[in-house]
Design a protein that fits this description.
It contains 18 helices and 19 strands. By secondary structure, it is an alpha+beta fold. The two termini are 18 Å apart.
Length: 493
């Protein structure tokens, strides 16, 4: 992380007093025990005590805190529920954590416009819970949906099982209220389907807390599909499973969800949930079709025929809601299940073109042997979003570093086959140093200019997303794109 500024650390008491002048005492946490609760997000391998934790209750308080920090030059790390899997909400020693958990109200439910206006601390599932009595729901469904916040979802452009058909967060939000680092409150979009000017929502969604603090979100809600049924398909090889995925999409069918697991993941999840997953297959595919019953029945037949043509050796079709939920139970519990087969694991997140699936799976198996670390694969097969779980034991010296290097190789592989570094978990700290694998110096400079337009002093979520120069020097590495040494004006070490 960037070197903390000694001048800020020395003025900690003054800064805390300044924050307490803006908010009630209970909204400013300065003692060590209280701050400890915020020292990491879901990437608990990286930890850092923040200078203080501030918990505003409304947009006006967020604006006042940001204005104060702007004037004092204090960095700010926004935080929702802290479930980030890329270290996005990792604190900095000389900065505050701005927790949005107290902004947790649904402000408006508008069925006529199919929209819900929510404060950023409302959980993802909280939105569906608020509208399901009328047959509506919010489609993007990260597996963390009982905990993660809609503000965090916007910042990470989060996805989930149903995003293949219904889109990611960016396809399901209509408006955002954003507070800039200098305290200015801006509004983008609204309940209308089209807004003039630049596509600000597209820019802000996935900006990982670097451009502003989201204080209100207007989301699109959808009518719940009349029915949903799922197929559980087992294949003798991942290639055949991958082939089936490609053929389903090529046939013009967009399933509500299409998820795959490899043998280690199947065994780990079956031992965890006992739902009858086949243990003699190399790849398990869950395909869900949703819509009017007649359409679903027709599509089930078509997918079933495609599975046969790909030599599926297991084929079960859900006959009721309980069975459909049972098919999903293992996949939804894949992360905790992995905790039973390994003391620690790193969950990676990269995206590849679907056609490269078997090539990437084969190479990952080779890498697993090369590093001597186990691997279990669960992935959003329909959209090519991989979640390899690298199994390791942090108590064994050097294993964490080995797991990190293995993970970096997997992400480079994703880029090499024409994919991208991240599918839905963001760049954060985890993938920061890999950004030059994907973006040229010119690309990165353009991205930094956008950041500077919103936050010229670089106070919002520093140390995230953009590679740090000194890390390249420490690692003895530097990415030279097209023969041009980056930042030639800077002294070399
Ligand atoms: C078990 C588990 C399963 C998961 N499954 C999925 C999945 O299926 N799909 C998926 O996409 N992700 C998944 N995640 C990752 C994570 O839940 C998402 O990235 C989620 O959107 C983070 O939300 P949060 O409220 O916890 O944000 P945090 O972790 O608190 O923050 C994440 C980032 O957003 C920024 N941020 C947070 N709130 C705001 C705000 N109001 N304004 C500006 N910036 C903000 C933070 O600075 C940080 O950079 C999973 C995580 C876990 C632990």
């Amino acid at each position: 992380m960037p070197e903390p500024q000694a001048a800020i650390l020395a003025r900690r008491d003054v800064i805390v007093a300044g924050l307490r002048a803006l908010l009630p005492d209970a909204c400013v946490i300065a003692d060590e025990t209280g701050r400890r609760a915020y020292e990491c997000d879901a990437v608990s391998a990286y930890r850092q005590l923040p200078l203080a934790v501030v918990l505003p209750r409304n947009t006006a308080e967020v604006s006042a805190v940001l204005r104060y920090c702007h004037e004092e030059g204090v960095p700010v790390v926004p935080r929702g529920a802290g479930t980030s899997l890329s270290g996005g909400a990792l604190p900095v020693a000389d900065g505050i954590i701005l927790g949005l958990g107290k902004l947790n109200k649904i402000l408006d439910i508008d069925f006529a416009n199919r929209a819900v206006v929510a404060q950023p601390g409302v959980t993802n599932l909280g939105i569906t819970n608020a509208v399901q009595h009328a047959g509506f729901y919010y489609a993007p469904d990260p597996s963390s949906q009982i905990a993660c916040t809609i503000g965090g979802n916007v910042a990470e452009n989060s996805g989930g099982v149903h995003c293949l058909k219904y889109g990611l967060t960016t396809n399901n939000i209509l408006g955002v209220e954003l507070v800039q680092m200098d305290g200015t409150v801006l509004r983008f979009g609204g309940k209308a389907l089209e807004a003039g000017g630049y596509d600000w929502l597209g820019l802000l969604t996935g900006s990982e807390g670097l451009l502003g603090v989201v204080t209100e979100v207007t989301v699109r809600i959808l009518r719940k599909p009349a029915t949903a049924r799922a197929l559980l398909l087992g294949f003798p090889s991942s290639e055949q499973g991958g082939d089936c995925v490609g053929k389903i999409i090529a046939a013009g069918i967009i399933p509500g969800g299409m998820e795959m697991m490899d043998r280690p993941a199947i065994h780990a999840t079956e031992a965890f949930v006992n739902v009858g997953y086949p243990l003699d297959v190399e790849a398990l595919l869950i395909v869900e079709l949703d819509g009017p019953p007649v359409e679903v029945d027709y599509l089930i037949e078509r997918v079933s025929a495609i599975a046969d043509s790909c030599s599926a050796v297991t084929k079960r079709i859900s006959v009721n809601e309980a069975e459909r939920m049972a098919f999903w139970a293992g996949r939804k519990a894949a992360f905790p299940a992995a905790g039973r087969i390994s003391p620690d694991y790193l969950c990676m997140d990269g995206t590849i073109p679907r056609r490269a699936l078997s090539q990437v799976l084969t190479r990952m198996t080779e890498l697993s042997k090369q590093y001597g670390l186990g691997l279990a694969n669960v992935f959003h097969a329909g959209d090519g979003n991989l979640h390899p779980l690298i199994l390791f034991d942090a108590n064994k010296p050097g294993e964490f570093e080995k797991a990190e290097a293995f993970g970096a190789d997997i992400l480079r592989l994703c880029v090499d086959v024409g994919g991208v570094l991240t599918g839905e978990h963001g760049v954060g700290v985890e993938k920061r140093e890999l950004m030059p694998c994907m973006f040229s110096e010119i690309d990165l400079d353009q991205q930094k200019r956008v950041k500077e337009a919103f936050d010229p002093q670089g106070l919002l979520n520093p140390g995230k997303v953009f590679p740090l120069l000194h890390r390249c020097a420490e690692g003895g590495q530097m990415h030279v794109a097209g023969g041009a040494i980056p930042h030639p004006d800077l002294p070399r070490f």
